[in-house]
Amino acid sequence: xxxxxxxxxxxxxxxxxxxxxxxxxxxxxxxxxxxxxxxxxxxxxxxxxxxxxxxxxxxxxxxxxxxxxxxxxxxxxxxxxxxxxxxxxxxxxxxxxxxxxxxxxxxxxxxxxxxxxxxxxxxxxxxxxxxxxxxxxxxxxxxxxxxxxxxxxxxxxxxxxxxxxxxxxxxxxxxxxxxxxxxxxxxxxxxxxxxxxxxxxxxxxxxxxxxxxxxxxxxxxxxxxxxxxxxxxxxxxxxxxxxxxxxxxxxxxxxxxxxxxxxxxxxxxxxxxxxxxxxxxxxxxxxxxxxxxxxxxxxxxxxxxxxxxxxxxxxxxxxxxxxxxxxxxxxxxxxxxxxxxxxxxxxxxxxxxxxxxxxxxxxxxxxxxxxxxxxxxxxxxxxxxxxxxxxxxxxxxxxxxxxxxxxxxxxxxxxxxxxxxxxxxxxxxxxxxxxxxxxxxxxxxxxxxxxx
Length: 452
Ligand code: SF4
Known about the structure:
With 452 residues, this protein is an alpha/beta fold. 32% of the residues lie in helices and 14% in strands. It contains 14 helices and 18 strands. The strands form six sheets. It has an eight-stranded parallel β-sheet with strand order 5-15-14-12-11-8-7-6. A two-stranded antiparallel sheet has the order 1-13. Strands 2-18 form a two-stranded antiparallel sheet. It is globular. The structure holds iron/sulfur cluster. Iron/sulfur cluster binds next to loops.
């Protein structure tokens, strides 16, 4: 009898839906190394998002504005509740907190320059305020994080707003990480920690055990700043309805809600993909909480986590946000995941450097390595020169301006003279899930799932 090595034609080769190739690869990597994966950027899984919403532009029943003749304002004021000097911006699109350590000093300077040119704000991050970003930013938001790395009262007084970070959308409930390869002498000195050693940032603030301690912290910061600047409270999106209410009760001027699609410089993949709720669901819960407290208009809401375009910003505003914040979009604008970088006016290929990291443009998420091929998330003296502040600032300025033009274009089409007049009635959803999360009707119906 002979035994055939080939399967009979009638047997189909089928990949398991549960244990697909990606899962098998994950299990075998874990089995070989005994380590979990750490990476940068945000969730890659598909979740209901702003793509699942559409605008109802003006038609017979509503009147559109003329694009080139009729103005549509995008001016935005944040922190009107208690601060003597609220933050005044030309657009409702702000730059999210990203740390010096994750980003190079050149990048922090580029963010400040671009934000200043277009009239918006940028934000510090774990590790403190750099001289470059303070000098280049007209409006700088200073973060108070659980780690307190680089946090000091002098810089508090030099800030235009303070943001107390409770959590981040990519890792609510988790702390930060900065791997040793990114801790150069300057980063180490600012954090008062040793060079070249992995650093973990705390998951919760050292001096509080609950919401009542947030009240004390906000009062402390108000006293240091003489009640001049707004105090923001940033939360990772989980129990958003309750958390927003607690932040408002504690005295926040502005609440920042970061959905699960928000980015990170270095976090466990399991955290990024499995913890938190989508931004779409978070916006609705946050707005409901403000409405419930009758604080809409008194406490401003900033939304972040996967905001990419002016249309995303418009949809967030229509749902009730006062502004959005962008992080990963900023990195991509600077050249993240590009095939080349610009140095001395020349485009230079970075393909070999991507390959050396075991990745390629379009799928890179290797910010944690400190070997960023385009010089964005690195502290390496050679690599960081690949992002020249002037080049980065110009690209980011163009991106922010484009987003704002898209936002005002959509607002005009909906008949609004002000982007803040966009409203939920301007939106419909493409899927039942998005309709339920956003609280808007399924397109072509009056049906909002779960609401009668
Ligand atoms: S190109 Fe740089 S910034 Fe972008 S994901 Fe890769 S390492 Fe991170």
